[in-house]
Design a protein that fits this description.
Elements: E1 3-4, E2 8-14, E3 17-22, H1 33-48, E4 54-59, H2 91-111, E5 117-121, E6 124-126, H3 128-134, E7 138-142, E8 146-148, H4 164-168, H5 170-179, E9 183-184, H6 185-190, E10 196-198, H7 203-215, H8 219-235, H9 238-266
Parallel strand pairs: 3-4, 4-5, 5-7, 6-8, 7-10
Antiparallel strand pairs: 1-2, 2-3, 8-9
Helix pairs in contact: 2-9
Bound molecules: zinc ion.
Residues 99, 160, 249, 253 line the site of zinc ion.
Length: 284
Amino acid sequence: MKQEFELATYEVVAPHVAKIMQNRPQARNAQNNRLTYDLDACFGLAARDEDIKVVLLGGEGPHFSSGHDLKSWGKMTDPLVTTWSPSKEGGVHSRYSFEQEVFLGMCRRWRDFPKPTIAMVQGKCIAGGLMLAWVCDLIIASDDATFVDPVVAMGVCGVEYFNHPYELGIRKAKELLFTADVWDAQEAHRLGMVNHVVPRPDLEQFTLDLAARIANKPAFALKMTKQAVNTAQNNMGQQSTMDTTIALHHMCHAHNAEMESRAVRREGLPEKFRGEPAPVKAAE
Ligand code: ZN
């Protein structure tokens, strides 16, 4: 039976296999707070159901994900955001609290989900969309899939879940970040980021077949195996890298905000955007 959340669905699609789908195709699955917490609720269902051994994560429509929905970005007043360290003060305090929970925190939580997960990626996978694919243990891409992290062009040093070096290798991570180039499914496969590339119509069936082979194995061994490989990645420094890079990322956000407010003052934009009182206007 399919369980429908506002922007995600959860369905047991084969013995021991559950499928979680982002369900916001009209917005290319742009990830707002609602979608984030709906996905987390779906992962919760899969975690608590002892019969489920493998989880698939996909996106409805032609594209896997267009990344974070900037309209809901940083909204600490959103009751969905339940961080233990909230701040409505604004500035770096609010932005950092928000991203620690909703972006980095959620991705770390899903990356450590205690059962094997497989991303099914078709169409575009942009910025925050990479984070969703990367937290999965395996990635199957259709031959039309493309990947890009363009946030350097927006003045920030890569997406919040900074897994680029571990996904792409050091040199390609630098190149793809510096250039904001799009890499296709074949290139992602060559770099080792994607396990298999399949024709678009075969994406789900191929992934289901793979999931069925994994689901034949004992649940506890799968759980320990995942933990073992994740520990190897931790020992390559992934956790401490992300603890540092999220701070660098926020230094970029803060720099952008400071430069923007200076430009606003310089260009004499409306008073509410100025950091100082508006001069008294002479009578016209
Ligand atoms: Zn950010």
